[in-house]
Amino acid sequence: GGMRAILAAVQAHVIAYLLFTPDTERTHLDRLCRVGRWEQGQALATALAETLWAAGGGGRAVVCLGTAPVTRTAREGYRASSFTETIRLFEFSEKAAAQGFISDHIDCFKGEGSHGVILFLYSLLFSRTLER
């Protein structure tokens, strides 16, 4: 439950990418044991993009990133979280563009204290749309 379900789904995509992406120099299992940091980032970016693309019905993906804190007064009946107010949405109509964008901003999802899982959850919700 909770965040573990999201992490498990992403991990499954990462492992599939690392196992089944063609690499003629090594066997798939050997490759899995010798993955460098750059390739780890690419695997994560691919996994996130594929999941968001699927959530968007194969026609769109929305990526949420945090920006600099904004000072705003909360409206009545609304409690500011100081995190949600910093989220910016980036919408893509091509899977490759979404994957490239995520790859360029991968540290936003994997860095210490980056709120990467929450950003990914918001991205899933906006990619799928609240109506669906």
TrEMBL record:
EC number: 3.4.19.12
Deubiquitinating enzyme MINDY-3/4 conserved domain boundaries: 1-132
Catalytic reaction(s) noted: Thiol-dependent hydrolysis of ester, thioester, amide, peptide and isopeptide bonds formed by the C-terminal Gly of ubiquitin (a 76-residue protein attached to proteins as an intracellular targeting signal)
This protein's UniProt keywords: Hydrolase, Protease, Thiol protease, Ubl conjugation pathway
Keyword Transmembrane helix: no
Coiled coil: none
Biological process according to GO: protein K48-linked deubiquitination; proteolysis
GO molecular function, one term: K48-linked deubiquitinase activity
Recorded family membership: Belongs to the MINDY deubiquitinase family. FAM188 subfamily.
Role noted for this protein: Hydrolase that can remove 'Lys-48'-linked conjugated ubiquitin from proteins.
Protein name: Ubiquitin carboxyl-terminal hydrolase MINDY
Species, as recorded: Notiomystis cincta
